Amino acid sequence: MRGAVIHAPGDVRFETLDDPKILHPTDAVIRTAVTCVCGSDLWPWRGLEPIGDAHPMGHEYVGFVEEVGSEVTAVKPGQFVVGSFATSDNTCANCRNGFPSNCLHREFMSTCQADYVRIPNAQGTLVATDEVPGEELWPGLLSVSDVMGTGWWAADAAEVKPGSTAVVVGDGAVGLCAVIAAKEMGAERIIAMSRHESRQKLAREFGATDIVTERGDEGIARIKDLTDGIGADSVLECVGTAQAMQQALHSARPGGNVGFVGVPHDVAIDGQELFFSHVGLRGGPAPVRRYLPDLIERVVTGRIEPGKVFDLTLPLDQVAEGYKTMDERRAIKALLKP
Ligand SMILES: [Zn+2]
C-alpha cells in the first residue's frame, strides 16, 4: 500500500509502505474511505514540533473493515466504520467515567493518511454505521473522528446551555465545528472570532450570530461590548496559542466556563488571575468515542453538516499539496481520497 511519510519540515512524501497486519487479537485493519490533513499535522510540517526519524502521518479516518482480530466482535468485514483519533478499549475505569481519550490502553492513531490502517483496540474504538453511507456523507463522518468530536467537546467542556452566550475562539475546522456544537446545545448567541471572510461565512451558516474580527485586548473589549460588559457564559478555545487562551479566559464572565481543545503551545496560566476570575477551565484531547453514536446519527440524518469544513479535495497521492495549501491558509481543511 501507499501512505504519507514526513521526513523533515515541509517534506511529506507519498511512499510505498508495508501493508498493515493484525498484530494483536484486539486489532482491526480498515481500507480507508477518506482521510484528511489536520491543523495539528502542521506543527511538525512547520518545524515547530520535533520530527525525529521519518514516520507516517494522519489520525483521522473512516473506512471499510477488511479484517478483524480474534477478540473483535463489535464490527465485521465490509462494514463502514468511524473511530476516534485516540483508541480506547471502552471498558477501563477512565472509559467508564466518560474519558476514553484517556483510556488506560490508549494508543494515538498516527498512520491514517494511507490506503489501509491498523486500528488498535478496535472492539472499543470503532463504531459501524447501520448501513454503508452514501459518499456524500463520508466527509461529515470523517470530521466526527476528530474535528467535529473536538468541537463538541469544546462546547461540552465549556458547559454550553440552552439560551446561553458562547464565544468561539479560532476559525479553523475545530472552531467552525465548535459553532455547530454550540448551536446544537442550544446557545442563543454564538460569537465567532474570525478574521477571514470565507470562514466567517461558514461560521454564520453553522449558526454564529455575531462575528468579532479583533484579536487580543481589542477582541476581549468587543466581546465585553456584546455581553453587557460581563463576558460570555461559555468560551470555546480552539487554537492552543497563548494569545487565544488569554482571549478565552478574559472573554468568560465570572462563573462562566472555558473549554480548551487546541493543543497548547507555550500557554501559561496565571494562578492568581484564574483564582480571582471565577472562571472554570477544562480541556484536553476530546473524548470522541463517547460522542460517536450521537454525532454519527446527527450527520447521517443531515441534522448537521460538518463535512463543509473540507473546502479542498485531493487524491491521496497529493497529500503534500494538502499540507502546503493548509499551511498557507488557502484551504480550511483538505480531504484526501485514496
Ligand atoms: Zn479504556
UniProtKB/TrEMBL annotation:
Q: Which residues form the Enoyl reductase (ER) domain?
A: 7-336
Q: What's the protein called, per UniProt?
A: IMP dehydrogenase
PANTHER family in the cross-refs? DEHYDROGENASE, ZINC-CONTAINING, PUTATIVE (AFU_ORTHOLOGUE AFUA_2G02810)-RELATED, ZINC-TYPE ALCOHOL DEHYDROGENASE-LIKE
Q: Where does the record locate the signal sequence feature?
A: none
Question: Per its UniProt entry, which superkingdom is the organism in?
Answer: Bacteria
Q: So what family is this one in?
A: Belongs to the zinc-containing alcohol dehydrogenase family.
Q: Which GO terms describe its molecular function?
A: oxidoreductase activity; zinc ion binding
| Requisite cofactors | Zn(2+)
Keyword Zinc attached: yes
Q: Which UniProt keywords apply?
A: Metal-binding, Oxidoreductase, Zinc
InterPro entries, per database record: ADH-like_C, ADH-like_N, ADH_Zn_CS, ER, GroES-like_sf, NAD(P)-bd_dom_sf
